[in-house]
Every structure is written in structure tokens, then in C-alpha cells.
Fold each of these.
Amino acid sequence: MENRKKVIIRTSAVGIAANLLLGAFKIAVGLISKSFTVVLDAVNNLTDALSSVITIIGAKLAGRKPDKKHPLGHGRIEYLSTMVIAAIILYAGITAAVESVKKIITPVEADYSAVSLIIIGAAVVVKILLGIYFKSAGKKVNSGALIASGEDAKFDAILSASVLASALIFVIFHINLEAYVGLIISAFIIKSGIQLLLEAADEVLGKRMDRDLAHAVRETICADECVLGAYDLILHSYGPENYIGSVHVEIPDTMSATEIDRMERRIAEKVYAGHGIILAGIGIYTSGGTDEMRENIYSIIEHHEGVLQVHGYYADSEKKTVSVDIILDFELDDRNAVFTEITNELRAAYPGWTVLTTLDLDV
């Protein structure tokens, strides 16, 4: 695959050039025709150009090699650059809203020429093409910033089309809707900024891993001949292309330490080769006790509402100790109450045993 950083920089550079040209033309048209919405649309283009500049800076900084202070690399800088872009978009949207309200209170009539209408129409076409280009490149290299820019460009095409529509309405019917269209545009800009900010915040906070990726990684792990099941997979993102994870695997309790070591190495190599993910830790679950006891414990637990998975079962007949991990749905009103109820029920079913239960997270 082509170098990810080069794709991001090249795509962003095209966006910068296109948006600067569009912005310059629209500012000229807006000033000549005294159109506030055209100037506002031009500011939106200049904001997009600035966003592309920040995307390039973010990509360059994120691509720096790991160092002593940041041994896992600098990939998360991309999330921070996205938040900066979101802040700029929000500022532009709020400023536009304030100016639109002023124009509603004190309207100024515009004066459009045929050339100005053609330029605005051409801007719509250019923005649609930019949107397709950005999204295609973003999906190719898994860049959230580029994909977001693509969506923003397509959205800008709609906004420019609304500016063109208000201009045509003014030319044909002499009805001035400029300030109201500007207010609508500013509302959409603010919405776009908030959405982008929340998406970046999700990445920084640590959002749920992609279901398809998690399923694929588990399939790779379970394909090993020694693995009976894979559980508790956790992936930590240190940038769009840098994942470090951990997992528990269930294995026969007859395996030796040497066999376990070989298995762990095989799994780590296959996961990295197939998915580019470093498995920093592979925990071990082994099963013991009677099959009847295991089936009964699983039956008791799964009888309760909201149980998503049961795993990590282990029973020591000599010490009369049994342990099991339980995953409960986050949608339950009181997960702790359900977990306590399950634990008490298991202890009642096995009064002579020490029952150890763990409430796992649905990740």
C-alpha cells in the first residue's frame, strides 16, 4: 500500500489549493455583488484550507519515530489535530451566526452578475469532486481526518448550492433571503464542528473497538490448534495504524509451559502479520472440574437477563474453588445488582465451594 503519510499530505495539498482558489473567487464575487452569504461561503472554504494545513501538520508529527518519552509513537497527535480543526470550524460557525443575525436586523441588498452566478455554480461542482476524492483517499489509508474532510466538502457543496439558490431567487423574484440562508449555513457549520469534536474525543477517551476488526482478530487466534476460545480482547489505539492489545485464550490444562510458550509466539506472529496488531499480553484460561458442574454453572448464569458471555471457568476439586468471568450488557439498569444476584445464586447452588466471580466489561 502506498505510504499513508504521503497520501494524506498529497490529498490535503490538493484540498488546500482548491479551497484557496474557491475562497479567493468567492470573496471577489461577494465584495463586488455585496453578497454576505457568498463571503460567508468563501470563509468556509478558507476554513477548509486551514483544516487541510492542520491535517498535514498532524500527519507529519504523528509519523515521527518513537522516542524515550513516547515509546509507543506519536500517532495520537492526529486525534489532537482533529480537535483543533473542530475548534476552528466551531469558531467560524459561531462568527457566521452572529453576522447573519446582524444582517437580518440590518439587511443589505446584493447585486449579482451572470459571472458571479457561474462562479458559485462551478464551486458546487468542485466541492462535490473534492468530497469524492477526499473520502476515497481517506478510506484507502484509514484516515479519519480525510474522511471527515470528504464529508465536509460534500456538505459544503450543498451549502454553496443554497447560496446559489438564494441568489437566483433574488435575481428572479427580488426576494432577499441572504441573511436567513447565512444563518442556516452557520448552524450546519456549528453542527459539523461539534460532531467532529465529539468523534475526536471518543478516540482520546477510548471508544469501543471496531466489531469487524475484533471478530477477525479472534478468528485468527482461534485458528490455532491449541486454542479452545479467545476472550477479553482489548485493543488500545496509539494512532490509526498503531494498535497494541491483550487477550485471554482458553487451552487444555494438559499443556506444558514449553507448549504454551510456543503457542503464544505463534499467535502473536499471526495477529501481527494478519492485522498489524501487537499483542503485548496473552493470558491463559484452563478448564478443570466435571463437565456436569460446568454446564450447570453456565446454565444458572445464562438464565439471567443481560448476560452476554460466560468464560474463564476453572474448578479445583481438591480445594473446592470455582471461578468464572461474566459479561453483562451495559444496557441493564443495574449491572452490579444482577451480578450480585448471580453470584449469590451460584454460592447457594454450591454451599461447600468457594465461588469466585468476575464482572468483565463488554468491550
Amino acid sequence: MKELMDYINNSLNSLPEDKYLYAFKKKLVAEITERANDITHTGISDDKVIYDIITGEHPNIEKEFREYKGEFEKKRQQKVAFRKTILGSAGYFLAVLIIFLVVSFMGQGWKKSWVFLINGLSLYVAYMSLNTVSLLSEKSSRYRPVSRTLLALSVFSFALPVFLICAFLLKAPHPWLVFIAAVIAMFTVDGIYIEKQKLRFAIFFHLAYIPPAMTMFYIFFATLNIIPWHPGWILIPLSFLIVIAVILYRLNIHKKHKYSDEETEADSEW
């Protein structure tokens, strides 16, 4: 064991002594001791053989230490971020509540001040949804459905305050159009996400979004009298023609490249 201890110390002697190095050495010694005992139980008793086996399993101890320290720092930063999130959330809710009460009492506007409270909660949900999506993006692909759901939730959480302000404070006409726009935004955001994540069969999601998105555009612009209701409805069957045209185009590309090395992943999905 002395040779192994010397090997550890010599491998790490260029690094400054700190709490990370001490913890790593303690952990590594325990692992090596256990490993040496396991090797001995297999019938190998030659110290040199044991030394060669263990040093072969740990050829770069300094690299192991840097990875250990990096992982330790990452966990520490996650804990700090979690504490900041808790404190920030508490401070945010307290600020929203105080402003709500001040506005309600000073302006005697209880009939409208609730809008501010709901908006504060809705924006918080949107922020937390986007923050969670950011965290999940660093994890495995199995979290992608959750991320896509949270992205949709964040879009509508942003849309709700706009709707409430337009409907109850500004008395704007057709405030429900905000949610029509939110549906279009949801399709757009999800399309960008699946493209950036290189999600398999992404093209089928894009195609599936064209008809409902075109329908939302039709309702939105027709309600605002930007296009007429008739024959503006032609946008809806036109969207299906676009889908069919894209499908035929992609099938034609796939047919040409079927036996070619130039076939792309997107082509193979057809």
C-alpha cells in the first residue's frame, strides 16, 4: 500500500492542498484499499501485480481529481442556485403582494387590482417553466416531451397577462385574439425547439402545425378586418395543399437519394 500511496501523492504533488484535494485523496484511498482487498481475495498476493493492476485502472489521477472537483463545484453551484431561486421566489411574491395591497388600498381599485396579482403569478409560472426547460436541456433526451410541454405553458402564461390587461384595463376590442396569437406562438416556439434539438421526425411536427397555424392566422386577421372572412377561408384548404406539396417534394427527394450516400437523416424519415 505504501507504493500506492506514493503513487497518489506523486501524481498530485503539483496541486495546492485544499479541502477538495483532501476529500479526493480520502475518497481515492478508500477506493484503492477496497480494490486491493478485492484483488487479494481472487488469489493474487504479489504486491507488484496489485500495484500494476490498480495504477493501470488509475493512469491519470490528476485528471480524475479535476473531474471530481468540477463535479463537486457543479453540485455546489446547483445548491446555491436553488437557494437563490427559493429566496428570489419568496421576495418576488412578497413584492407582488405588497404592490397589490398598496394599489388596492390607495387607489381603492379592488375591482381591477386583482389583475395585477394574477399577472404576477402568471409571469412567475412562465419564468419557472423557461428556467426548467433550460435545466432539462442539459439532461437526456427523454425529458424533451416535458420541455415541450413547459414551453407551451410558458407561452400561455405570458399570454394571460396580456389578455387581462387588454380585457379589463384597456377595454380593447377582441381581447381573446391574444390567445389565438398565443397558439401561433406556441407552434413557432415548439418548431424552433424540435429543430434545435434535432428531434427525429421533426418534419412531421412542422407539417402537422401548418393547418392549425393557418387557421389561427385566418381567424386573427379576419377578426381585425385585415382580410375578409370570405373568401379568406381559402387559407385553410390552402394549408392542406401546402402540406401535400411538401410531402410530395420530400418523397421525391427520398426516392432520388434512396440508394445514394447523400441521403440525409431527414430524407430517411420518409
Amino acid sequence: MDVVSVVGPDAVKAVLADPGKNFSAKLAIDAFMKDFIGRAILARDFEDHRYHRRIMQSAFKSGPMKTYLDRMTPHIALGLRRCESEQFFLFHPFIKKLSLRLASGIFLGLEQGSDLDRINSALVVMMNGAISPIRLKIPGLAFNEGLVKRQLIADYISELIVERRKNPSMDMLSEFCNAKSEEGEQFSDSDIIDHMIFMWLAAHETTTSLLCHVMYRICQFPEWQSRLREECYGIGKPAIDYEDLPKLDLMDWVIKETLRLHPPAPITMRTSLRECEFYGFQIPANTLISIGPGISHFLEEYWSNPQQFDPLRFSPERAEDKSHTHAYVPFGGGAHTCIGMHFAAMQVKAVLYQMLLNHSWETPAGYDPKFKMTPIPKPKDDLPIKMTNFPRRSQFH
């Protein structure tokens, strides 16, 4: 197919802001993921998108966010304890499993037990089907198996919706079931299913990718690992509370610099709705647009030594990310800016805090990882790691 590639902060802003409503997210997503995410928030345009986003925003206010953090804290501690005896292990499968368990608990309220294992396994099969290049509904093929598991998950969520509408729990599904916009608008059951499946998929995959890259970078630069650990010690708790998040400035800069160098979604897609002129070029109607925000993260006119890992570029004194409104866009921009970006940052900080408080981390000497870039960047060798335990500080308990 023909694809128009759009790069550079000005061009990225023009497409993502889209004042002329020339570019559709829905058509681009439908071409690849419609069978799996349905009419999720990502696959909606313009007023329809605004309608759903207005309702969804209530699930990401401070009250629910505090609840999500409280729910994930013990699961992070349990996950780390389970690998303490191993010392040497592969970080990617470990953190992917932990991220999936956190997502299942926070989004659907699933805890230990047969339902958790069954639904998590179905989600993995569904994800494999979603990225399969052979997209035929033939039994035995990954694409078809993914669709079967997608239906299983949809049926399971449908049953939970009935319960959550009557008896809300401390999970995102309950928030979606009872969410209302200021105008009193609510989601239908089918809306909730599509939104939940997409959020569940996106959250654990992107968080896994980000944590892998953060781990690689703080092993590559152990001085930054030490600085982050001291910042965690300054909080003086075994796990962070919601009110502690703004206190982790250094961790925030490390996460942002990692997102600059390794954006979990380095390409965003749109489809042109009509023929339009764009910076002197004619774009035909119904043409796929590939937006490369990650390229903007390496342009020397906006970033000093852009190939270098330098979290201090995000400090207030330098603020290189403010050089252009779209020089730094790891969570997209415009109306489709990731609604869960603050949730993702909170989860990554919560995991990193407990990881750094009681453990040090190393990669093999001279380690130079290679990354598989699609659909979500991940280390090809699963990131071999050595973990050393620290004595737990009694004053934190």
C-alpha cells in the first residue's frame, strides 16, 4: 500500500492537532486492529471520540488513581519476592508477567486463581493473533485463535459488568460501568468491553516495554541507579503513596528520557479522509499516514547531544522538551493524546520504587542489546539481568 511518512515537530503537530479534520484515527486502526479492539477509544474520531473521552476521564481522576495504586502495591512486592532467590534471570518475561498481573487486577479486579490464569493466557493468545501477518479466519492459525480468545474475554467481561454495575469494586471496570460525564452520559456494555480490552492490552504491553528500557539504561549508567535509589530512600516508605509521586523528580526525568530514546509507540497511524494539501504536498484521499514522533526526539535543533542518555535535559533549568510543543510526544498529541499517560507513569514509578529500594541490578559486562521494534519495542534476548538483594530497612515497615 502507499504510505505518506510525516516527520518533524511542525508536521507531526499539523497532523495530530488536525484543525481541518482531514485525518482519521479510526480508519487507520480499523485497517489493522478492528477485529480485536472494536470501537475502543483509539478507534474513534472527532465528536464520537470526544463523547467517549469525556466519560472515560472520570476513571483517571485522583480518587480512582489512588485506589489503583493501593491495589497494585502488594502485587509488586509479591512479584519481586518471587524472583529474589533466582539472582540471574531474564527481565522481559518477568516484568511482562508482573505487568499483566497488575493490569488484570487493576482493570478487572482479578486476583490469584483460575480465572486470572485463564484470562491472562487468553489475552496473550489474543495479542499474538492481533499481530499475526496471516490474517485468515482458519482454525489453527494465530489470527483465528486470537479471535476465539477475544470472544472468550469479551464474554467474561460481559458477565463481570452485570456484577460491577450492582456492586462496584476497586477496579477500572467498576469505574467504567458507573462513569458519567458532566452531562450524565454513560457507556453501553459493548463500549465498556471494547475500551477495557484495548486499555488492558495497551497498558501492560507499553509498560513492559518502558520498564525494560529503563532497566537497561540504569544498568548502563549505574550512577543514575544510585541517584534514584537515594531519592527512594528519601521517601522513607516500603512503597509509595499517591501523594509521593510528585516528589520523585529524578525518577520522572529518567522515565521521560527513556521515553524519548525508546518510545513504546514510535509510529502513529492516520488515514486521510479527503485529498488535502500538506506543506505544499498533495495527499490523496484514503491514504495511510505514518507519523514518526520518535524521529523528533533525535533532532539536534531541539535536543543537545540527542543520542546521549541525559535525564537532566528534563530538569527545569534545561527543559529541552519545551523547545517545541511536539518535539517530545511519546504519548501522542492533539485530541488523541493518551488518556492513560498519567496512569502509566504512576505504575512505572510504583514498580521502580520497590525495585530500587531493596535491590541492585546489573546487565552482563559489555552488554549491548538488540531490540525487536514491532509491534511494541522489546529486547530480542529478553534482557538478562543480575539482581542483588539489599537488607530491608526496618524503618520502612
